[in-house]
Amino acid sequence: MSDPVIRPVRADEWEKVKELRLVALSDPMAPLAFLETAAQAAEKPDEFWQDRARAAAEGRDVRQFVAEAPDGRWDGSVTVFLEEIGSTDFLDQDIERNQGHIVGVFVRPRQRGTGITDALFEAALEWAWSLEEPALERVRLFVHEDNARAGAFYRRFGFQPSGLVIPKPGDPHSKELEYVFARPAN
Fold this sequence. Notes:
By secondary structure, the chain is α+β, with helices and mostly antiparallel strands.
């Protein structure tokens, strides 16, 4: 079996972006990992998905990477957003450093443990570190306190808990833990 190709999405692949997102949101862990439901995502018009794919392929502030199997099926995805000093994040908090923010991490269950997640994260971090203006200090992500599998992967990959704990958006009784990966010294 051939290894998947890890690559950025292309603007014309909006239907595959939508399909994989709906699969991800149907996963049993989706309520812990994502901030929307499959039903909410399915209601979005095609223009939403077209804009999303275009921004993730062509925009300066976001990049989505996919793991494409030899038969063309997408087996996983990860997205990185640029957060610049002076902007605000998804919680309306001021951004105090130039950083990347990883979201939308998903690998199909039968592909977990095969190295695809590592390859997706390597591509995402390579892109983040390639940005020059601004150069990013770190990349961060949030993981639900009960998502032990994801937390274990992030730590194994090199992310460290920052100590920041926030209520999960939409569920103030659940906690999200921030993990960070500092820019490697050259």
